[in-house]
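Two entries, shown back to back:
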Amino acid sequence: MTEVVSNISPPPGAVATVSDAPPIHYMVKIESFSSLGKNAVETYESGVFEAGGYKWKLVLYPNGNKSNNVKDHISLYLAMVDASSLPRGWEVNVIFRLFLLDQNKDSYLVIQAGKERRFHGLKLECGFDQFIKLSTFNDARYGFVLEDTCVLGAEVFVCGERSRGKGEVLSMKKDPTASKYTWKIVDFSKLDEKRQESQIFSTGDHQCLPKQFVSGQNETTSTEDSALS
């Protein structure tokens, strides 16, 4: 059974309901919850779970996501894991629900966004800055924390996915290695072939060949590098 919650304010743009059924994809039990704050633990990441053909994890900020200027709330997000193996330009649309167990009534507070959320290469995390007020979370009447233990969960349903095709990634090294290779050609005039290649040489993490030359160039050449895959 699921019912709308009237006495708990949901995050902006979300809906709060109560369900007797536990989450079908993942649950995490956190013991000694108060020690997270006492030990200045800003972020807790759950184990990895699979849903809809993808891997996910929960990301919890027990005292609010300070990078988003969140105060007096718990922040909770769903994050995609191992996205580097997906094709360039990928997008995944999901509907997800985040759960918090009321241990007094053995039912779950369920927070769900009002629309699908889109994950892609530049946005691997979606969720709620203001998942629940700390004052409500710690209020014994709601049963969210019992004997300093709480239980969270998630359901993730993939609604659509696509790849936008070709793309590229430019990665620049902060401190590139400068390399120079000199190729000395002996008896240049006796060479019969028009095309010559030097030995392979190394520069940084790459093996390279200099540009080939044709007869008529100088005997001693400082080459330009061409990286080999």
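entry 2 starts here
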Amino acid sequence: MALLDRCQELFKTSNLYEVLSIKKEATDAEIRRSYYKVSLKVHPDRAPEDPLATEKFQVLGKLYAVLSDKEQRAVYDEQGVVDEESDILRQDRCWEDYWRLLFPKITVQDILEFEKKYKGSDEERQDVIQLYVQHQGDVDAIMASALCSSQEDEPRLCSIIQDAMKNKEVPTFPAFTQESEKKKRARRKRADRERQEAEEMQKEMGLDDQDDSLVMMLKQRQNSREHNFNSFLSDLEAKYSKKSGKSQRGKRGKK
């Protein structure tokens, strides 16, 4: 089955950009980051409950191969077709190896260094503002998606948003300005529970090694929000990974 048809079947759209939830004008970096985030959700090792995970993962690999190749992307943008018989879409390609080549593993030290530089940076500010607009002021969603954040960071992140509203950089959303105390208490209670569960798990597993303990705490800090921790890692891996090489064009398959 052709790539665009498989996208329609598996992701309910044949638009390659819509599959990744990005705009047609997205930069190479934005495409790479979105590909990682979406593919991580259906990675066979991370989504064992999804019987279509492997097929989705393979289709996403082909999709990214098309959009990351300048000539292939230009053809798709102009004509809405994909070069189905090109080398980059060959059937015998191992898309797991391709994925790992694009996103090599990072170390705990990479995480610590990134977090140290990220917090308080202009990049963090822009990310928080973008999340505020994207989620229309829903603090639960903002906190669940913000990188390197925990409950303790909420006042600081909210301050960033308030300054942006004051400077008229963003619209005012009632979900943010009129959030109920009940919802705030529920969020604090949930964060306290997650922190306690992390501490209990660390004790149960007897993690004395500093690196292992750190990784466990980082993961548990995002407990019940694994996709957001993966999102955190995706930004890191995108920064540390190498660029892939160009591929050749082949025949065209129509949409």
